[in-house]
Amino acid sequence: MAFKISARTILQLGAELISSDAVALYELIKNSIDARSRNGVSITFAIVIRESDYSQAIALAEKPGTDAQRVESVRAALLNAVLATAPEENLRRFRAAINKPANLEDLLKAAKDAYRACNTITVSDTGEGMTLEDLSDIYLSIGTTSRAKHVKRAQERGETISPYLGEKGVGRLSVMRLGRKVRIETGTEHDKRINLLEIDWQLFEEAYDKPASSVIIEPTVDGPKAKGEQFTRIIISDLRSSWSVAALEKIAATQIARMLDPFSWDGRRFPIRLSFNGQEIEKMRTVSGDLLSQSHARCIGKFSVDKEGIPSLKIEMESSLYEGPKTLQQFDRTDLYSMAGLKDLGLPPTVLSRLGEFSFDLYWFNRQRLRALPNVGDRNEVRLLVNAWAGICLFRDGYRVLPYGDEGDDWLELDRKALASGGYKLNTKQIIGRVRIGRLQNPQLVDQTNRQGLTETPEKVALAGILHDVIERWWRAYLTEATRAQKSAAAADYDSHKEVSTVDSLERRAKTSLRSIQREFTGDTSLLQEVTDAFLEIKDAHARAVAHIETVENQKERLTQLAGIGLMTEVVAHELARATEDTLKTLKSVPSRSLDASTSAALKTLSQQVGVIKKRLAALEPLSVPARQRRSLQDIAQIVAYVLDGHSAQFKRHKVNVVNHVASGQTIKAFVSEGNVVQILENLINNSIYWLDVWREEHPHVVPEIHVDMLENPPRLRYWDNGPGIPPPRVNVVFEAFFSTRPDSETRRKGLGLYIARESAEMLGGSLSLVDEGAIRDGRYNIFELELKEGR
Questions:
Q1: What is the per-residue pLDDT across 682-741, written as a single tens digit (0 to 9) for each?
Q2: 259, 271 in Cβ contact below 8 A?
Q3: Cβ proximity of 584 and 518 under 8 Å
Q4: What are the pLDDT digits (tens) for 556-596?
Q5: pTM summary value
Q6: Measuring CA to CA, how many Å separate 30 from each of 177, 271, 580?
Q7: Contacts of 168 (CB under 8 A, 6+ apart)
Q8: Would you say 437 and 430 are in contact if contact means Cβ atoms under 8 Å apart?
Q9: Where are the alpha helices (DSSP H) in 100-201?
């Protein structure tokens, strides 16, 4: 037995896979490109009467009145609705058909036949053409793999340019979308006669539940063809849509003009000619180098994968609004794994290698600064051109992947972010951009069959994630931070009330979980009360710390400490909320028959977590007790020990081995305030936990480790982990405010951690720096050295 396909299935395929008239025309143009047409493609609309006017006239046959009255009413409506620009021969045939019938039945039949015959869309090219066998074996085989096989062979040969744009074998359904009838005239250079294929899709509507094979379609041979001539002419009739100059102009401007990569000024563009009843349809002006060279900022990038499958990304940013040189950034596999959001989704780093190479060019225009440009036009023309081309299009082998870049399309989720942020709004209406991929370079980035974007694959997620991160994090930061001084001054925007709001949100999450736990647990509720009380302690400790820090006279020191206490408060509250939610998940996964025993175990774990959280709260105390904020000779080893102990549960959960190399009983003194040292260690630990998780995803065999060493003369603390480390170009920039390569979901303070740590070290009269390149990872910095003062 085999599947039997009904006639209606063919109709449904055409309706669902070709989603619009614009997509249908797009697919037919792609077919001409794949046929290697020597002089482009011509699409000619010959319209006598619009479909809507025809339907409205036919509807008059249902109006009250005598048969003669209805005949004249329908006839008059049809003749009055003909277009003045209609082709003369088509118009003559239509009028003759409508004027001949004497009764209503004959008139309606004549009108239907005339509408089907006299309104056409003709797609012509001088491509390779099709043989009789091609029409029978390939064109009539929906989903044929003929082109896919060529693409696969090109890929196996290591070629970089795909031999075909399309390969799914469904493009021929485009003619069904446009009209119910098609006549295909074609021939190769070796054919002596024209090969002909006619399809009436209305026969499939009539057959409907019968097998598709019951509708017999046979290609035939027609009249003679000139020697050496090759061509394909597709004549579509019985049109489904109401066509007009305005409707075609809109498709030409929004889809056809943007079909080809507008940034490619080298080489001849594939000619696409559109006409409506003899009137040439002008396509939108292509974007030019003159316009892009006057953009207010640009971001150019290239994602590469070397022979070993190691990915990397380089981006270059510059702006006429920024009084500085071009900014270059480089990202390695570890950076990209985080930027792409793969870690959050539990996807492996190998996705990046399978993604393949791609590049992008993004140009930003400040609408308030637009002006007249030579070779472009006055200010209004410049504005219209920017509006027309705004959006980030995706081009495969030089041709656009729909619908990316269309008006309203936000495939990189930029508009949602822009609406919620201040400063430079990097939304799709201000950016003209392209992303370039290739069928052979990016085999995992394939179109959905319905031509509505890329199929949702891990590689597509990685592509969108990387581009979003580059624009939202790096390019935005470049535009909004004119100097490092401005970056540091931005810390003055700190608002201590934000931490209270964040902790309140986390507390609500925990209480929701607690309520669910209480419904399942009828025992001692004192532990659940402890969780509630712990949040009160967190907020109380934060309030006391803020109250004390705000008395600090030095503004820079005050702001740094406030930001630091906020960061630590959020982390501690987040840990407690997570522990409560994890307990609830455990309880929900337990079968009801064993609930009592398992509940006890789950709640015991939560009890241990609450105990650890209270230890973490102790880390906030040095920031709220005035005596511990004053500098004095302190035992650094002791501070290190209790901070590490407060993170013990977190280390266990993330399977991190911690080695404190300070010998038992060893004392190392330094002139410090305890609170500053705590802040430095907290930020270093939080960074390590994140990047060790990322590194383990790439290297599952590695056992994550954190090491702490103490050195004397002068007193120094060396902190390092065996994670990915930091590349040399970032040795200084990682300490700048708001710098981070972590995704937004992981960056609570948006890159303030190491900035706070270094500022805290400098407040102590010491320093925090990266040292010993290559000591842990080749070509990377893994070791932070905190140098402190021995005395006043």
A1: 789 888 988 998 888 888 888 999 999 988 888 899 999 999 999 888 888 888 766 777
A2: no
A3: no
A4: 555 555 555 665 666 666 656 656 665 666 556 555 544 45
A5: 0.69
A6: 16, 12, 56
A7: 143, 148, 447, 449
A8: no
A9: 104-118, 132-134, 146-156, 174-178
Summarised one tens digit per residue, pLDDT across range 75-111 is 999 999 999 999 999 999 999 999 999 899 999 999 9
Scanning 415-525, the segments in alpha helix (DSSP H) are 415-419, 458-469, 476-480, 484-490, 497-520
Angstrom distance (rounded) from CA 387 to CA 381: 10
Q: What span, in angstroms and rounded, lies between the C-alpha atoms of 327 and 329?
A: 7
The torsion angles phi and psi of 272, rounded to 5 degrees, stand at -125, 115
Judge whether 780 and 771 are in contact, CB under 8 Å: no
Confidence grade of residue 502 (pLDDT, cut at 50, 70, 90)? low
Q: Where are the alpha helices (DSSP H) in 521-635?
A: 526-549, 555-588, 595-624, 626-629
Distance CA 371, CA 373 (A): 6
* Ramachandran bin of 341, using left for φ above 0, alpha for ψ from -120 to 50, beta for the remaining angles: left
**Average pLDDT for the chain:** 79
Which of 42-46, 286-290, 312-316, 694-698 is least confident? 286-290
Residue 493: its pLDDT value, please?
46
Which residues sit opposite 411 in a β-bridge? Answer: none
Q: Is the peptide bond before 403 cis (omega within 30 degrees of 0)?
A: yes
Which has the closest alpha carbon to 466: 356, 319, 318?
356
Largest CA distance in the chain: 115
The helix (H) or strand (E) run that includes residue 655 is none
Distance CA(681)–CA(623), nearest Å, equals 14
Distance CA 579, CA 508 (A): 14
Q: Tally the residues of the chain.
A: 792
Cβ atoms within 10 Å, residue 8: 15
Least reliable range by pLDDT among 198-212, 238-252, 502-516, 677-691: 502-516
Q: Is the pLDDT of residue 59 over 60?
A: yes
CA 175, 241, 124, 38 torsion: positive or negative? Answer: negative
